[in-house]
Write a structure and sequence with these properties.
The structure holds 2 protein chains of 2 kinds.
Chain A: H1 8-58, E1 61-62, E2 70-71, H2 75-82, H3 84-118, H4 123-130, H5 137-148, H6 154-161, H7 180-205, H8 209-217, H9 222-250, H10 254-259, H11 271-281, H12 285-310
Chain B: E1 4-6, E2 9-11, H1 16-49, E3 55-60, H2 62-79, E4 82-87, H3 90-103, E5 110-114, H4 118-121, H5 134-138, H6 142-147, E6 149-150, E7 153-154, E8 157-160, E9 164-169, H7 170-173, H8 176-186, H9 196-205, H10 223-231, H11 250-264, H12 278-286, E10 292-296, H13 299-302, E11 313-316, E12 320-321, E13 324-325, E14 332-335, H14 343-356, H15 371-377, H16 386-394, H17 407-421, H18 429-445
Parallel strand pairs in B: 3-4, 3-5
Antiparallel strand pairs in B: 1-2, 5-14, 6-7, 8-14, 9-10, 9-11, 12-13
Helix pairs in contact in B: 10-11, 17-18
The chains are: A mainly alpha, B alpha+beta.
Chain lengths: 318, 447
């Protein structure tokens, strides 16, 4: 832009054609971007939006799909909220998430820090550590079912051989209702801790080194650097990992279906399995849809709270 | 955007517009290839899954595929029509059949399904009453005819019939030393047990630490317990013919005391009964850990040569309780969905299966459904299980499970949890049955 020594109005009018041109170019880019997003939006609307609408619609009807359905209003929601089985499944789902999330976060974070510290020397270890992520949940469930079986499971035999257990049948991993939920949580932890490690490691890689140098100059020790620099700077990454894993953990299904089928005595039936049984096994489409809608709403609220409290973008810890 | 010069090369960074154009090109290419790929794969998928009028699609389990393969081959040879066998696991088979019939658009023409599914699927199946002439009915077991029906209509033809029988270790039972010791302890000759008492004696006799157990107790599956209920003399299992609840009657209690008592009181079963189902019992027997097992008839032909018990297995009819021998039949039926566009060809195949069902005897599963077919093979080598199966299926106390669309829910939420609760020490069996009754009432009240 050429500086024009004149009065303000002339200067303004001299600037105006250039600004309008830039604004016109910005609008075109924005429109162009929207146009590019349109196919994805259509796909999402068809594959996600429409099934959601159908789900809510189904929740307002009763009767089996084969025998014919009739409008039932909110009675399915009332049945879902007052059902002892649904309430128990919800409680077990929360407990399941409380078991897997802290373990995955602590172990995952520790491994990420180890990889960061070791740098290139950890390349092979990183690759090996990620292998469980490549295994399908169904396969993992089957694998752990055999490992935890009472009579021929390798875990009990290993624990007995090193003297932790007396006799190789001391722990009925899959047969004791008090620990069955833990038994189905183990494969989940084994499968997805590497995902947590991967994401946190990527976050650690992106942290600026000069902040640590400045802290070191100021006399901060490793633990202080971790608490005062690493954790606050990684907060958005931790929030994303937690929300993703929370939703995943609460909708756990495949591993539990294969390992225990929700037993013994429904001790490992979480919401995913409850919805599956209600819809597929018992043919109660309306009730299954109502449970799904309530479950989805609950997860959205929890995810929102988690993001708001953990992420706090722009927040500064003093 | 400013240009930069490095090593005398002027570089122009990618502008936002150029980036968006590049992204659009990549996205369009990806979308096009996905559309082409999905069209191609959809075309590839279409051919075996959509009937062309001269081919049929049958959905079945792996065992069903074994059973039907020789019949489909002969059908093709004799009629020129192809029958495609689509294998699915048990739950997947149920899911697919239920989901597709619910929508009214099916990719299969015949379902080879479990007997307990017929009440649930009946609204979506073609009634085939005309098939069951007096001559046809005369060659089927009464129980299999009963389970083919729902509310007065037949919905499937029994294609293979199964029932639990007794398997025992011939090498142990025929050992001179074992026979001598058994006679000395119990006062009668060691032989494959017939009664509950003889079964208990043999199980106790052969339980030797953790090296060998007399038998297994399966608390993760319900059918064997239900057979025990019938052996105890109950007029039915769980529900009477008129729909009233009988799960807490005296016979159910006696059966539970005997069934779970083998584990709880006599300790003749390996630990882990709570989680023991068919797979675990099979593995234990194959590994030589149990001297006897009550198992489905098809096991006899499936014992692998690598098993510790290969060549050492004898079979006998299901054990007899106070009311005699009893078992729960486990037939599978061939049914035609109403939405199939090939119903007449499907019916032709069903008739063909009825006429040539004996071909299934020589397959890996080795099961047939007609009485005449059982009798034709019972004395042939490799078919020793047929005689005890015939005797068990013909027993007066052998009865079917209740005809109820809620049966699977009753199994999952009442029977199996009840059996699992009955395993342990100091169990109050009456209280366990009372709890089962309460849960059953809740389910039945939902109708």
């Amino acid at each position: 832009m050429v500086a024009i020594e004149t009065d303000q109005s002339t200067l303004v009018s001299a600037r105006l054609p250039v600004a309008r041109g830039r604004r016109r170019r910005q609008l075109q880019d924005r429109q162009y971007a929207l146009l590019l997003m349109l196919p994805a939006a259509v796909v999402l609307a068809v594959l996600v939006g429409w099934p959601l609408v159908e789900l809510v619609k189904d929740s307002l009807y009763s009767g089996g799909l084969l025998t014919g359905q009739h409008f039932a209003g909110l009675s399915n929601y009332k049945a879902a909220l007052t059902s002892g089985e649904v309430q128990a499944s919800a409680g077990r789902t929360g407990l399941y998430a409380l078991i897997v999330l802290p373990v995955e976060l602590i172990v995952g974070f520790a491994m990420a820090l180890l990889f960061k510290t070791l740098g290139d020397r950890a390349r092979v270890l990183r690759t090996v550590f990620i292998y469980p992520l490549l295994i399908a949940p169904l396969v993992a469930g089957l694998l752990w079912q055999y490992m935890l079986a009472a009579n021929y499971g390798i875990l009990n035999q290993l624990l007995a051989s090193i003297g932790i257990l007396h006799g190789d049948n001391s722990i009925l991993w899959l047969g004791d209702p008090t620990i069955a939920l833990l038994a189905v949580a183990i494969p989940d932890i084994w499968l997805t801790t590497s995902f947590v490690t991967l994401v946190l490691f990527a976050g650690l890689q992106a942290l600026p080194a000069d902040v640590y140098e400045a802290a070191k100059i100021d006399g901060a020790g490793p633990w202080q650097a971790f608490l005062r620099i690493t954790v606050p700077l990684l907060r958005p990454v931790i929030a994303v990992v937690l929300v993703i894993r929370l939703v995943d953990a609460m909708s756990a299904f495949a591993v539990i279906l294969i390992e225990t089928q929700g037993g013994p005595q429904q001790a490992s039936t979480t919401m995913g399995l409850e919805i599956y049984n209600t819809f597929i096994t018992y043919g109660n489409t309306g009730l299954a849809a109502a449970i799904s809608v309530l479950f989805m709403a609950a997860m959205m609220i929890i995810a929102f709270i988690a993001l708001k409290t953990i992420w706090r973008p722009g927040g500064v810890t003093r | 955007m400013p240009e930069t010069t490095k090593n005398n090369v002027t570089e122009t960074p990618l502008s936002r517009r150029r980036f968006l154009q590049f992204g659009a090109a990549v996205g369009a290419a990806a979308a096009a290839s996905t559309a082409l790929g999905s069209t191609a794969s959809a075309a590839a998928r279409r051919s075996p899954f959509v009937s062309s009028g001269k081919s049929l699609n049958v959905i079945c389990e792996a065992g069903g595929s074994l059973e039907l393969t020789p019949i489909t081959a002969l059908f093709k040879k004799m009629t020129g029509n192809t029958v495609n066998l689509i294998e699915l696991p048990y739950n997947g088979l149920y899911n697919r059949a239920y989901s597709e019939m619910s929508t009214g658009s099916v990719t299969f023409d015949i379902l080879a399904g479990d007997a307990i599914w017929i009440p649930t699927f009946a609204p979506g199946l073609v009634p085939i009453n005309s098939f069951f002439t007096p001559a046809v009915k005369g060659d089927y077991f009464p129980a299999t005819l009963q389970e083919a029906q729902y509310k007065g209509n037949y919905y499937g033809i029994p294609q293979w019939t199964n029932v639990e029988i007794l398997y025992y270790r011939k090498d142990l039972f025929e050992s001179t030393a074992e026979q001598k010791n058994f006679k000395a302890k119990y006062g009668y000759d060691l032989a494959p047990p017939v009664t509950w008492q003889q079964f208990t004696d043999a199980a106790e006799f052969f339980t030797r630490g953790s090296a060998l157990y007399g038998t297994d107790v399966k608390a993760d599956v319900e059918t064997e317990y239900l057979a025990t209920v019938l052996q105890a003399g109950s007029p039915g299992v769980v529900l009477a013919d008129n729909g009233s609840i009988i799960i807490d009657n005296a016979q159910h209690l006696a059966a539970l005391e005997f069934y779970s008592g083998l584990n709880n009181k006599l300790h003749v079963a390996p630990p882990g009964a709570v989680e023991a189902g068919w797979a675990q019992a099979q593995t234990l027997f194959y590994d030589g850990k149990t001297a006897m097992t009550r198992f489905w008839g098809h096991l006899y032909r499936q014992i692998p040569s690598s098993s510790k018990v290969y060549g050492k297995v004898g079979v006998a009819p299901m054990i007899s309780g106070p009311a005699g021998v009893a078992g729960i039949p486990g037939p599978y039926y061939l049914s035609i969905p109403k939405a199939s566009p090939n119903a007449s060809l499907a019916m032709e195949f069903l008739n063909f299966c009825y006429a040539h069902g004996q071909l299934s005897a020589d397959t890996g599963l080795g099961l047939v459904s007609r009485i005449s077919q059982f009798k034709a093979y019972e004395n042939k080598p490799g078919f020793a299980a047929y005689k005890p199966m015939l005797e068990t299926l013909n027993a007066p106390q052998t009865k079917t499970r209740p005809t109820s669309p809620q049966w699977q829910q009753i199994v999952n939420e009442v029977l199996v949890p009840m059996l699992q609760k009955s395993i342990g020490s100091n169990v109050n069996y009456a209280a366990v049955l009372a709890g089962g009754k309460a849960n059953l009432e809740k389910i039945l009240n939902q109708i």
